[in-house]
């Protein structure tokens, strides 16, 4: 059995790898990725393996974005730290889920389920995947409503709805408010991205995490990249790579 693992936490990957080896030595891990875009790029150029283990919150977004960019015809087992009540949407047809930290017994049961149901998967993307995406998009999940920022020796809270963008510069991360104020944050862009509503905020590149409301226009840049025009001033151009351009345009609507 060939499996693909999509997981952005190294300890979680190592644990899953160890358990898979203990349960079935014949299982072959063909690749490991930690983000949406690199996974999409690989799947577009390689045959989908027999089974995919997929974390939900990845380094550059939610794993559901993968299904919106590439067809996946094989079973997926989601691995997540979400609470039990959040997992109702995942119990769709033959898609399974594992709560972190993963234990050996649950993993073994998921593999048995895969072996039992794998014949039901065709070369066409299962409708259950789209149903899952729809349910997650409509879910009333709680996203971060405010951020604690530093202002000299003081600290204060800034409402998320007042933030135009988050930016990384010289190893530091800042947020910019609608009022034009800039504050230092004690978080990485990767961590911040996981706490925001993906319908409202998008990781344009390694440096900028943008609020939809801050985007005024998008222009073609070079052969396949995009140049983002925003309502706030910035020193450098905000460029969306060719790999992320399609997903970015879909996000814009």
From TrEMBL:
GO MF term list: DNA binding; phosphorelay response regulator activity
Domain Response regulatory: 2-115
Keyword Phosphoprotein appears in the UniProt entry: yes
PTM sites of type 4-aspartylphosphate: 55
Annotated InterPro entries: CheY-like_superfamily, LytR-like, LytTR_DNA-bd_dom, Sig_transdc_resp-reg_receiver
Superkingdom assignment: Bacteria
Residue ranges occupied by any HTH LytTR-type domain in the UniProt entry: 147-253
Coiled coil: none
A Pfam family reported for this protein in Swiss-Prot or TrEMBL: LytTR
Keywords for the protein's UniProt record, in alphabetical order: Phosphoprotein
The keyword Phosphoprotein is annotated on this UniProt entry: yes
The protein's name in its UniProt record: Two component transcriptional regulator, LytTR family
Organism this protein belongs to: Reichenbachiella faecimaris
Taxon lineage: Bacteria, Pseudomonadati, Bacteroidota, Cytophagia, Cytophagales
């Amino acid at each position: 059995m060939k499996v693909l693992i999509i997981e952005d936490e190294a300890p979680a990957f190592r644990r899953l790898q160890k358990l898979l080896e203990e349960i079935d030595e014949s299982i072959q891990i063909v690749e490991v990725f930690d983000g949406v875009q690199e996974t999409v790029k690989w799947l577009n150029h390689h045959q989908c393996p027999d089974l995919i283990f997929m974390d939900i919150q990845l380094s550059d977004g939610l794993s559901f974005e993968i299904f919106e960019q590439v067809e996946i015809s094989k079973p997926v087992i989601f691995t997540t730290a979400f609470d039990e009540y959040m997992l109702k949407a995942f119990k769709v047809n033959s898609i399974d889920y594992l709560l972190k930290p993963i234990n050996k017994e649950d993993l073994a049961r998921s593999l048995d389920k895969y072996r039992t149901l794998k014949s039901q998967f065709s070369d066409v993307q299962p409708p259950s995947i789209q149903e899952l995406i729809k349910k997650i998009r409509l879910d009333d999940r709680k996203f971060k409503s405010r951020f604690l920022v530093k202002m000299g020796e003081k600290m204060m809270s800034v409402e998320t709805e007042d933030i135009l963008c988050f930016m990384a510069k010289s190893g530091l991360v800042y947020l910019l408010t609608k009022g034009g104020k800039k504050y230092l944050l004690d978080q990485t862009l990767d961590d911040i991205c996981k706490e925001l509503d993906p319908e409202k905020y998008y990781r344009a590149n390694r440096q900028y995490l943008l609020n939809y409301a801050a985007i005024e226009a998008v222009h073609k840049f070079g052969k396949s990249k995009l140049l983002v025009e925003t309502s706030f001033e910035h020193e450098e151009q905000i460029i969306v790579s060719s790999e992320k351009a399609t997903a970015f345009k879909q996000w814009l609507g």
